[in-house]
Amino acid sequence: MTETATDLRSDLASFPTARDPECPFDPPAEYADLREQEGTPSLACPVGVNARVVSRYADVRAALADPNLSSHAAPSTHVVPGGLLDRPVAPGSLLNMDGAGHARLRRLLTPEFTVKRIQALRPYVQGLVDDHLDALLEHGGPVDLVEHFALPIPSLVICELLGVDYGDRDRFQEQTAVLIGTNSDPAALEQANLEVVGFMTQLVLTKLAAPGDDLLGRLIVRAGENGQELSVEELVTLGITLLIAGHETTANMIGLSTLALLRQPDQLAALRADPGLAGTAVDEMLRYLSIVQFGVLRQATGDVTVGDETIKAGEWLVAALSAGNRDESVFPDPDRIDLRRGATAHLAFGYGIHQCLGQQLARVELQEVFVRLHQRIPTLRLAVPFEDVEFKNDALVYGVRALPVTWDEEDNR
């Protein structure tokens, strides 16, 4: 039986969402305590239910790989006060689907995200990064790196993939910021959803009439050839999912990882001296920052064993990705950035059937940013005191709202 808001026990500790302002790159300190506890403690979540919280690396992987844990609720609904846990899963909602329906969509999309196809995009990404660095250097500091660099690059990439007019970027960036906020006004949330659905519906209808050589066009053709035609609603939901995931996560990683590296000059110096470190550096920063900051929500459809305990059918479970990524039994000295660590088995992209489909694209974008930004602007530094940087503590995807930076004039040459 599904737990309801009335089942919330007031004597339980609350699910941790607050970070220490002195350590804004670290997850809430309570996660370390949870890893030390036996079993999987139950915590009271803002949405109004209790959930078992899995915080150890091995247990997080096991939970995310278990087919008896459903993702039908939105991935981080547990931290949204007043969120809806029992709404029907919309057709095409890849993140919320399980079983055969999810597998069908995943199979249709996978050819768009193969290593070969993504590597073929690398020269395009390199060009975008260099063009934006040219513009930054011509403008001169100080400048907001989020607005002029971190946001536009992944936005251009996902627009290119989906066949979206880049002129619409401001429109969908504003809407998606509302959609992934944990404290968005309900009226604003409804309006943003209506607008982004309307925008994507128009795009899908255009693609259905004349499929082009872009992700949506190829997806339409592939589905038809396989006798698995996708409905307008499925295509709209898939398009929105890819649009949001394709720019929000990478944009926040660019801004947040740049700030974190500026705070670790020895590690940044190693990256500047050896651009070949970019691959391991990206995975280490993904592990260290874990920007899906509140983890992902699952519900047991049958009894599930996690560690030595049984999660009963109907119970909710939160897989705390950032807690698993700081598990010292897997990542020695986990609260320290080590760009040579080789943390490719991190949990930042999730695990199991819902592991991020676009992870190779994110890696390519971040690798090119890491190398080119710090090679071409070696004196990059904050233009404001660190204490003045505002973090997105109330968003499902963690990051910084702005990152004012500057550099020495000699870098402009």
Supply database-style keywords:
single chain, 413 residues, alpha+beta, Cytochrome p450, 5-stranded mixed β-sheet, 3-stranded antiparallel β-sheet, disordered N terminus
Describe the structure.
The protein has helices spanning 30-36, 57-65, 99-109, 115-120, 122-139, 145-150, 152-162, 169-179, 186-209, 215-225, 232-262, 265-273, 278-289, 321-324, 359-376, and strands at residues 42-44, 50-54, 69-70, 143-144, 296-300, 304-306, 309-311, 316-319, 381-382, 404-406. The chain has 413 residues and is α+β, with helices and mostly antiparallel strands. The chain has one domain (5-412): Cytochrome P450 (Cytochrome p450, Orthogonal Bundle), CATH 1.10.630.10. Strands 1-2-8-5-3 form a five-stranded mixed sheet. Helix 9 (186-209) crosses helix 11 (232-262). Residues 1-6 have low confidence and may be disordered.
SSE order and pairing:
Elements: H1 30-36, E1 42-44, E2 50-54, H2 57-65, E3 69-70, H3 99-109, H4 115-120, H5 122-139, E4 143-144, H6 145-150, H7 152-162, H8 169-179, H9 186-209, H10 215-225, H11 232-262, H12 265-273, H13 278-289, E5 296-300, E6 304-306, E7 309-311, E8 316-319, H14 321-324, H15 359-376, E9 381-382, E10 404-406
Parallel strand pairs: 2-8
Antiparallel strand pairs: 1-2, 3-5, 4-10, 5-8, 6-7, 9-10
Helix pairs in contact: 5-15, 7-11, 8-9, 9-11, 11-15, 13-15
Q: How is the biggest beta sheet arranged?
A: 5 strands, mixed
For the CA atoms, what is the radius of gyration?
Answer: 21 Å
Strand content: 5-15%
Query: Helix tally?
Result: 15
CATH superfamily: Cytochrome P450
CATH architecture grouping: Orthogonal Bundle
CATH topology: Cytochrome p450
Number of domains: 1
